[in-house]
Each structure stands twice: as structure tokens, then as C-alpha cells.
Design brief:
This is Gfo/Idh/MocA family oxidoreductase. It contains twelve helices and 16 strands. It is of the alpha/beta class and 447 residues long. The chain has a ten-stranded mixed beta sheet. Strands 3-2-1-4-5-6 form a six-stranded parallel beta sheet, with helices on both faces. The chain is globular and about 60 Å long. The two termini are 35 Å apart. The model is unreliable at 1-25 and 353-365 (pLDDT under 50).
């Protein structure tokens, strides 16, 4: 199986940002677990992806989900009922994640909240002595992603990013082929996100539903009047809370582009796109094409988000294509790859014949259970080096999406310094590396 780039190689590619020390909670020693010790878990955010977190945690050996947390008590009660029916066990409910973090009986948390909460929830968890599985994207902006990395190191926590492609045997096998030179010098990656994204309309403002703590839902982001266009899913298409599809489904593919090319952050970025189909309230582009240039590595990434009816490329609609001087490899979704060699595109190695890489991997799961298994193993051993999706991936793959979005919003080519993680002589672009946080929900400096 292919090994992920080490933490050292990740950190060589990006420098730790400025170190303004501020007050932080006392560091809580990491709890040691034996093979027979039960790990208690809380799942934060239970509308969509959080349901998968519950299921994946509950199939792990000696792991128990003891608490569900969400600002919407209506959802919590529904999930509590279904949890009882499925697992014949009770589960506690909590609306405020801070109370979850205050509970000394909770060992790990999995975060499936909206994007604008991911970094702050992770940092708070690290400060509270919890290990973390956080959904993609790890950050809502570049600056807070770096702070996530710093928090994981300072508080010695296990932080796994939800890029479960890295735990897929098929994808690992494809990456190893590239590392072994199977398609020659790999110079380009193309990420694809061709998804059916329809018209969401505009539902306007409405009273906050009973049982919803909208202040907590908003957290660090600006607090807009309540609308069902945000709660619970369509926040993805609004800049204050989401990052469009490149920062949604696309993070799996931005991460895979970086992993396959063995690169970090680029030095030149350009993007173009827009809304072409729907006159709805989405703010993020329906279609977005971004290009990321790595002149020192002599490599390039092309990334495309495309909505509605579309073709596939090499059989993939959501996936990645890697180009070398001897051929190319197509990674289709989460668990399938194929290769083509030479100028005649002669079919090469693949896992479509049910080979070792495909065995035991359900189509579409992409190793989710295996990704949680990898996380729990790291928690038990206190060994972050074995993580398939370490905290650096939460920062770097998310940052790639953010850079593309910034170039799109500013409508110009941007020059970026990966070491300082700042733009080159561009104060307007630098201002978009972070955000203004609501009082009480500031993302802290932790170094």
C-alpha cells in the first residue's frame, strides 16, 4: 500500500505562520487507552454526514457513541430515537458543543458541523483534551486552517481529516503505481466534481423554528436573519458559511491532487466561473475552473466544478486524472481506478476486475469505516504518524480550494508564497485569508 507523505514532508512545504502567543487553557494530558478500554465518542452535527459518523464509530471495536450534539433539538430527538432502535442503547443529547468538551467522560469527538465551525470546533476540542475526527474541509479559510495544525501539535492531539479516499485500498494502490513510475513523470493532476446541483430557489427570511439555537448554529460567522436557505444544507452555497462545491465534495479531490503530485501549496492561481443555470440565492459559482501552478516542482493542477447534466472524463464524473509522460491514471470516485499507457491509450492496470484493491470495499463508501478505524488506532496508540489523513491535509487540501475561490472572487491571477502563506504584495487578497469573528467565537492563536 502507498504511504501518505509524512508530517515532516508536509511541514517542509508550508511554514508555520506567525507566533503571537495568547492565553490558552491548561494542556490536558492525553488519555492512554489499552486494547480493552472503551473509547467514548460524541458526534457534533447530526443532520447529514454526522449520521455516517455515528454508524462508522459504532462498528469500531470497543467504541461507543455516548453523546449527540447539534443546535437543532428537533434533529437530536429524531437521531436519539433512531439510535435507540438500531443499537438498543441510549445516547445523551446536547445542543452546545462547549458542554460536550466539558464532559471528562468523552474521549473523542467527530465534527460534521457546517464548514464555518470546523476549525474552531477542532481547536476547542484539542484544548479540552479531546481527539478529533473532522469532516472536510478542515477550515473555512486559510488562516484558521494553519491554526488547526498548530493546535494539534501544541496540545498533542490526534486529529484525522475526513478525506477517506486516503484509506481506500484502491486509491492507495493507484498512488503507489505513480510513485513506482508506472505512468512515468507525473506532471499534471485534474480534479473533477461533476455533480447534479439544482435550483434551490429563495425561501426568504422566516422565524427561527422552535428547538433551533440559531446563535450556536451561526457561531463564528456573521449572524444573518434566519432562512431555510441556510439551515440545514444549503449553507454550502453561501460564502459566510460554505465554500461552494470545490470546498464541499471537491476537498476529496483537491487532497488527492496534492497527494498524487506530492505537492503542497502553489505559487500562482487563476480561476474563472459563475452562475449560468439558476436564478436562485446561491452566492458561490455553479461552475468553476481553477488552475494551480507549481513552477519549482514543474507541476500543475487543473480543477473543475461542473453542475447538472454533463459528460464524464475517462469514466469519472467525481474523481481525478493524473497525467505522466508514459500514460495516465483515472481515479473514479472513492474505490476504482484504471490506467492507460502510451500514445494509443492501451489499457493498463486497474482494479475493475475485482482485484485486491477492490476486495472488501463497498462502492461509494471510499473507506469511511476504514478511515475511522485508522483514527481509533492512532488514538489508542497515541501515534499520529499512522494517520492516513493527518491534520496537515485538513489545512492544505482546504487551502487549495480557498485559493481558487479567492482568485475567482477577485477575478485576477494571484501570486502566492507557500512559506509565509501570504499573497505577494496583495493586501486585498491577504484580507481574504481570514475573517472577522463574532465575539465569543474567535479562532484563537495557539502557538
Amino acid at each position: 500500500m502507498a504511504k501518505n507523505p509524512s508530517r515532516r514532508s508536509f511541514m517542509k512545504k508550508t511554514a508555520v505562520a506567525g507566533a503571537a502567543a495568547v492565553f490558552a487553557p491548561t494542556i490536558i494530558p492525553a488519555k492512554a487507552f489499552g486494547a480493552n478500554d472503551r473509547i467514548n465518542a460524541a458526534v457534533l452535527g447530526v443532520n447529514g454526514r454526522g449520521q455516517t459518523h455515528i454508524a462508522s464509530l459504532m462498528v469500531q471495536d470497543n467504541v461507543q457513541v455516548t453523546t449527540l450534539c447539534d443546535p437543532d433539538m428537533r434533529l437530536l430527538k429524531e437521531r436519539q430515537k433512531s439510535f435507540k432502535e438500531k443499537y438498543k442503547a441510549d445516547v445523551a443529547l446536547e445542543q452546545d458543543l462547549r458542554k460536550v468538551y466539558d464532559n471528562p467522560d468523552i474521549d473523542v469527538v467527530s465534527i460534521a458541523m457546517p464548514n464555518h465551525w470546523h476549525s474552531l470546533a477542532t481547536i476547542w476540542a484539542c484544548q479540552a483534551g479531546k481527539d478529533v475526527y473532522v469532516e472536510k474541509p478542515g477550515s473555512h479559510n486559510i488562516a484558521e486552517g494553519r491554526k488547526m495544525v498548530e493546535a494539534a501539535y501544541k496540545y498533542d492531539r490526534i486529529v484525522q481529516h475526513g478525506v477517506q479516499l486516503r484509506s481506500s485500498p484502491a486509491v492507495q494502490e493507484a498512488i503507489q503505481l505513480m510513485r513506482d513510475g508506472y505512468i512515468g513523470k507525473v506532471y499534471m493532476a485534474r480534479g473533477l466534481v461533476f455533480r447534479m446541483r439544482g435550483d434551490i430557489g429563495d425561501k426568504g427570511f422566516s422565524p427561527i423554528p422552535e428547538g433551533v439555537d440559531y446563535d450556536l448554529w451561526t457561531g463564528p460567522a456573521p449572524k444573518r436573519p434566519f432562512t431555510e436557505n441556510l439551515v440545514h444544507y444549503n449553507w454550502h452555497w453561501h460564502w459566510d458559511y460554505g465554500n461552494g462545491d470545490v470546498g464541499n465534495q471537491g476537498i476529496h479531490e483537491t487532497d488527492l491532487c496534492q497527494w498524487g503530485l506530492d505537492v503542497g501549496l502553489p505559487t500562482k492561481i487563476t480561476s474563472m466561473g459563475g452562475k449560468f443555470l439558476w436564478k436562485d440565492c446561491k452566492e458561490t459559482p455553479e461552475l468553476l475552473t481553477s488552475i494551480y501552478h507549481y513552477p519549482e516542482e514543474d507541476k500543475i493542477i487543473q480543477f473543475e466544478v461542473r453542475p447538472w447534466l454533463t459528460n464524464n472524463e475517462g469514466g469519472a464524473t467525481v474523481g481525478n486524472i493524473f497525467y505522466g509522460d508514459k500514460g495516465y491514471i483515472v481515479i473514479d470516485g472513492y474505490d476504482k481506478y484504471s490506467s492507460f499507457l502510451g500514445k494509443d491509450n492501451t489499457p493498463g492496470k486497474s482494479n475493475s476486475d475485482g482485484g485486491q484493491a477492490a476486495s472488501g470495499v463497498d462502492r461509494g463508501l471510499g473507506g469511511t469505516d476504514a478511515h475511522f478505524e485508522n483514527f481509533i488506532k492512532a488514538v489508542r496508540t497515541r501515534d499520529s504518524s499512522i494517520l492516513n489523513g493527518p491534520v496537515e491535509t485538513a489545512h492544505l487540501s482546504s487551502a487549495l480550494a480557498h485559493l481558487g475561490n479567492i482568485a475567482y472572487r477577485l477575478d485576477r491571477v494571484l501570486n502566492f508564497d507557500p512559506k509565509s502563506e501570504k499573497f505577494v504584495n496583495d493586501a486585498e487578497a491577504d484580507a481574504m485569508l481570514t475573517r472577522n469573528y463574532r465575539k465569543g467565537f474567535e479562532v484563537p492563536d495557539v502557538v
